Amino acid sequence: MIKNIVLLFMLIQFAMAEELKIRSESFHADENKGVSVFTGSVNILKHNDELNASQVTVYTDKQNKPVKFIATGDVSFVIETKQGAKYSGVAGKAIFLPQEKEYHFYQDVHLKQLNEKKEIQGDEVVLEIIAGKAYAKGVVQKPVIMIFDIAEDEGKK
To answer: Which of 49, 94, 135, 137 would be 71's cystine partner, CB 3.0–4.6 Å?
Structure first.
C-alpha cells in the first residue's frame, strides 16, 4: 500500500510541469507494470483543464512519468489550448498522450469550442493542444457534423 501511495505521488509530480490532481473513489497500482487505475467518479484537474470519467488508467514509463491516460465511462472534459481556445464536451472514451499533447476522443463525441461557438460531433475526434487543431471522423451511418454560429449582417437580410 505504501508503494502505491509513493507511486501516486511520483506520478503526479512527473505528470506535467504544472500540478496534476486526481480524485477518485478507489485506486490501485502495479509499479512493476507501470499501471495505475482510478475508479469511481474520477476527476482530474490540471491548470485550466478538467477530465471526468468512471475510470481512468494511467500508464507510466520506467521513470514513473505518465505516457498515456485512458478515460472510460461517462467521459466529460474542459480543455484549453495554448492559443487560448476553450473546449468542452463528452465522449465514451478519451485518451490523453502527454508527450504529444493530444487528446483522442471516441464513441459519440460532442466537442464544443466555447469562445468561437463551434461544435463537432463524430465518432472519433483528435484535439492537438499545442497546434490548436481538431480533426474528426464519422462512421458509415453517422457522418461528422460541424456546427458554426454565423452572425448575420442586419443590412443584408
So the answer is: 94
